[in-house]
Amino acid sequence: MLPDPILRFTLFGNELKIYMYGVCIAVGILVCLGIFYLYTKKKNMPSKVQDFIFVIAIISIALGFLAAKLYQAVYEWIETGKFDFAHSGITAMGGFVGGAAVFLIAYFVGGKFVFKGEEEGLHKREFNKILLCAPCCITIAHAFGRIGCLCAGCCHGAFVSHEAGHGGLYMHSDGIWGYYVPTQLYESIFLFALFAVLSYLYFNRYNITMQVYLIAYGVWRIIIEFFRTDARGAVILGLYPSQWQSIIFIAGGIAMLLIYVFKKIPLRLPKE
Hints:
Elements: E1 7-11, E2 14-18, H1 20-42, H2 47-80, H3 92-114, H4 122-125, H5 127-152, E3 159-161, E4 169-173, E5 176-180, H6 183-203, H7 209-225, H8 241-262
């Protein structure tokens, strides 16, 4: 819908371009960080832990984008036999997995050096608050990101027509303007709704926001992938790479639920 730059300016003799896709990503990240601050403050997370998280979150986001690009390059390599990291796009699920891995390593390893003395182990004691809040943050950032995809014309559904009146939304994809099934819009609406559900669970002390996120988004992603027609990797045993990752998400969410049940971890926390 808005694939061309929305702003152009010159800085130090170089022309810079700002795209709506990038604006949506930036807004998503800022809202994500804002939600984390407000939600964890409501749960009385110590400010030092919050500050520590913000530092490693910025690092995780940056490396998460590299992971997203690497995942897409691997997808394309499986499909075409050519590995081209420099010119590959990005895939959201790769960014989530890579960013989460960096965050966890930095949080637990770095936390040993940051929290010492009387504060030793403080970050570990606060980790469950992060686990409960993270799905809300990820979901709202992803929702804005999908609006960016809609503007850029990526991650779309089937081509409908070059003319109005046959359904779909008018957008640009691979140099072609036309009407496409707006799977990006559908996913954005789903993610905003999922954010509302997760926020309800969070503020009503339910201890299962991560499990709900993994299962709900995993199921959604498997379904929506069947309606997308953009390039997203080779089909392996009838499923796209993101669908295989979604199966892992679902299995992980179910496994966490079973662990909570068998170890009698409360599914709803007591009032503080």
